[in-house]
Amino acid sequence: MTEQVIYPVQPGQKTKLNNAQYQAMYAESLRDPEGFWQQQAQRIEWKKPFSKVKDVSFAKEDLHIRWFEDGELNVTESCLDRHLDKHGDDVAIIWEPDDESQVARRITYRELSKEVNQLANGLRDLGVKKGDVVTIYMPMVPEASMAMLACARIGAIHSVVFGGFSPEALAGRIEDGNCHYVITANEGVRAGKIVPLKENVDAAINLCKSDQVKKVVVLNHTGNACTMEVGRDEDYRQLVDKQDSECQAEVMNAEDPLFILYTSGSTGKPKGVLHTCGGYLVYASMTHEYIFDYERGDVYWCAADVGWITGHSYIVYGPFANGATVVMYEGVPTHPDCGRVARIVDKHQINILYIAPTAIRALMSDGDEPVEGASLESLRLLGTVGEPINPEAWRWYYRTFGRSQCPIVDTWWQTETGAALITPLPGATDLKPGSATRPFFGIEPALVDEKGNELSGATSGNLIIKDSWPGQMRTVFGDHQRFIDTYFSTFEGTYFTGDGAKRDEDGYFWITGRVDDVLNVSGHRMGTAEIESALVAHEAVSEAAVVGFPHDVKGQGIYVYVTLNHDVQASPAIRNDLINWVRKEIGPIASPDIIQWAPGLPKTRSGKIMRRILRKIATDEYDQLGDISTLADPSVVESLIQEHQALT
Ligand code: 6R9
């Protein structure tokens, strides 16, 4: 283990549960899941109560996952309507603009509800119906959350695409979702730079089938003009302002889809992870309340983008279900300098801060000074998500932002899991830097070896989850077989996470990272296969192999081995060209950090690229290459090592 120092629960710390209560409640959640979730599900509003709690089988031949299946609800009634009577004037969203000199916006639950209802009516006017997929490609503005809730209000399935994705990536998602409607903005602003969202949407639509996209709703966020196609494009403001402020909520079955969200796997194209209404909301809201020890009135900031699952569950659904005040920040944590996050905390008197390790490392790179100017006294709880946090970054976050007083909740979870599964609970869990600690209620993690044998005690292995929880994904949109193959076939009868983990003597889990071909770059998930297929689509490239390597700020960097076509000469120009090509095909987050020219790649005799060897070369671990005698041509390894040493 890297570190075992314990940061015990501090005496007198405000908390919902102590350790003994957590233990008892956890034991109960496994002993009687039906009773436990029957009770927990009452935290949200049901239009029609459910009579059955759980109907699940993880068996490959009979896979099904159903929670609260005959219940009916509309998630927006839990997130909006029920707060209006007593808490309508509470602030739902505090929006902090990219440009520090601009005024922040404060939106109450009443205002949020009105605009969501109006937009929902507007979408209905445009022809959007229950079950239709609506793509949301927005900057970090309140209207992004409103668009998600407006879809939910009318039973449309939203598919949020991160605003940093390229037109090509956007088009792929629009087509895969068979989506006819897009909600976007003219432009976004990040770190002072304009992101041409509408232009990207136009380019994406051109890549799609001609009758794919029927309507585009465009928010004018920056005041600059953009091209509007008559008959297809609608101005967001005009559409919303003319609508009635009440929109009847569509009655949804608990297992009706709420949203799809594309995420990368180890093979093939990104898959549309599908979440449903009832179980997802119960689980998102419960985890938000317990993990962040949320109390009404707390100001809470989750610094993720709504384009990722963290934004869905912890900027929108979890917090709004709990009537929380959510800070939403348009920009980049280090803009215009490393003191920005601390200044935002002071400005809005934030109590709970939830941010990715990569952002912490970026802030840390400037030392303590930018943070020292701030008071940070409003903070009482810190959180991290997205990748393993290195103990050094953990301690820096604890000491500076936390003033050595705030617990850090290191929440491990995935797009597929809907919300956090392994996490400390503040006040209940002693902390160890770098460990996500213990399972949340109802979660039964286990470690298995390559053959699927369960391992006991302090050990390491593949991380699986033995039984279902309400927030679990239900299928891959349009490809149920892929759902079964990806998650339930490796270790039969269990959900396979794709992560490796260690468990220590105290039963604490330490996530060690992906055991498959998925990279985690600055907390963004990317499949090596996706980047490889973008590269080989370039006319100069014959073959490409992508691996991750440790990167100080990003966690993992992207290392690319490229074999050029015979008639192409390696040069700095072609290197740049390939980097730009990947940015265009996928987006800037997929930019290769290192490109190494490879006259040949290490392959088995059956032609499979041995990424294991390429990973070792990228990380200078030449003595751990393992058996290379089975390679079709073992001599390529030596030349790759030489080339790598020359490069780095
Ligand atoms: C929520 C989110 C999921 C993958 C996951 C794992 C890594 C997330 C982590 C963590 C260590 C944590 N991951 N949280 N690793 N400690 N606290 O990030 O979802 O984008 O789907 O990524 O991220 O490898 O499998 P997603």
UniProtKB/TrEMBL annotation:
GO biological process, alphabetically ordered: acetyl-CoA biosynthetic process from acetate
Domain of life, per lineage: Bacteria
MF GO annotations: acetate-CoA ligase activity; AMP binding; ATP binding; metal ion binding
Keyword Nucleotide-binding: yes
Cofactor: Mg(2+)
Post-translational modification N6-acetyllysine, affected residues: 608
Entry keywords, A to Z: Acetylation, ATP-binding, Ligase, Magnesium, Metal-binding, Nucleotide-binding
InterPro entries: Ac_CoA_lig (IPR011904), ACAS_N (IPR032387), AMP-bd_C (IPR025110), AMP-bd_C_sf (IPR045851), AMP-binding_CS (IPR020845), AMP-dep_synth/lig_dom (IPR000873), ANL_N_sf (IPR042099)
Residue ranges constituting the AMP-dependent synthetase/ligase domain according to the UniProt record: 81-467
Similarity comment text for this entry: Belongs to the ATP-dependent AMP-binding enzyme family.
Name of protein: Acetyl-coenzyme A synthetase
Organism: Bermanella marisrubri
